[in-house]
């Protein structure tokens, strides 16, 4: 059984944090409707969705992936790179407590969950504007007793590692090599995004399906050529907040 935690869109989404995208007008009502459709899509793929209420004073609260990491043995409450977002963490920790023992990062560590790509027992951790060396070190300390290996990956030109690299299979990632230090991935097999779609690497695997935004048809064809079953969804309004399909869900596997 796959349980997925989501959180509704804040009415203040227009004040979201941005790093690499220019600020443009966001239709919050449309974004909320797209998010509801996203939740329904996850349910159609077999997930049990637990939709948490929005935090009205937290513009980025819909992006539940950043405040926490969930592994088979433990959940880690991160210390996000933007101080203004740290108010999102406690209610998410309460929602996770029934499912996992919690560990917490401490100052001066910063780490966003969007910077962590898991492949088996390897955790590739983006060294981005949001995740620092102490965050990488504390994560390594927390997960080492459970057999995980932490591998830092340089990130440039995008918000998080998952903006440029996401797992699509065991030992296989979809990747934009221009935005990360791809050599750090080692033996991982890389499928390159379509050149015209640099932001297409943020995809979410649910069971046998790769879920991705409908904004990247060329990369969809690339994945299908490799034999993957791909489904798409319109998240165009939410993408204006520098988002993808991974950041809006927290996967809790039994």
SSE blueprint:
Elements: E1 2-7, H1 28-44, E2 48-52, E3 68-70, E4 75-77, H2 89-96, E5 102-104, E6 116-119, E7 122-127, H3 133-143, E8 149-154, E9 165-169, E10 172-175, E11 189-192, E12 204-206, E13 209-213, H4 217-225, E14 229-233, H5 236-239, E15 250-253
Parallel strand pairs: 1-2, 4-5, 7-8, 10-11, 13-14
Antiparallel strand pairs: 1-15, 3-4, 6-7, 9-10, 12-13
Short description, anyone?
By secondary structure, this protein is α/β, with parallel strands linked by helices. It is built from 5 helices and 15 strands. The longest helix has 17 residues.
Structural notes for this entry:
With 254 residues, the chain is an alpha/beta fold. It is built from five helices and 15 strands. The protein has helices spanning 28-44, 89-96, 133-143, 217-225, 236-239; strands at residues 2-7, 48-52, 68-70, 75-77, 102-104, 116-119, 122-127, 149-154, 165-169, 172-175, 189-192, 204-206, 209-213, 229-233, 250-253. The strands form five sheets. A three-stranded mixed sheet has the order 2-1-15, covered by helices on one side. Strands 3-4-5 form a three-stranded mixed sheet, with helices on one face.
